[in-house]
Amino acid sequence: MLVSFSPLKADSSMMTRSVTGVRVIEQRIEEVTRANQRFYEAFETLDIAKMDEVWAHLEYVTCVHPGWTLRSDWPNVRDSWVLIFNNTFSMKFELTEVMVQVAGDMGWVICVENITSQQSEEPQQARILATNLFERIGDEWLMIHHHGSAVMG
What we know:
Layout: H1 12-45, H2 48-54, E1 62-64, E2 71-72, H3 74-86, E3 90-103, E4 106-118, E5 123-137, E6 140-150
Parallel strand pairs: 1-6
Antiparallel strand pairs: 1-2, 3-4, 4-5, 5-6
Helix pairs in contact: 1-2
């Protein structure tokens, strides 16, 4: 028996779905990028009300600040930000090595936070490798996890 295969030909509906899928991913990456920017704006302004707007207020949210233990559940995560904000005079970020990705209703950003902060008279410099995880809830991308680890060297 002779079986022959012909190359598949993409019909216009397949092409449209493919292009539409790419556009949706690009749009979601832009949305996650904006959500990440809002997070760092809240962080820089040391404004807990702005930070409240960025985070999902859910029991499964988590946060690990450099040198801290895991905080889980929104009230505990929020308290960690209050502690940081109450003990910091200023904080400025320059983000480098930024990578943004999405999969369905989850999006994440991996970046290096180059931080200048002031908690006393002398400004301090730090480099933190951060992972920020966002979940699309309704029409919003809200943070559900932040993890920062000091970069040595």
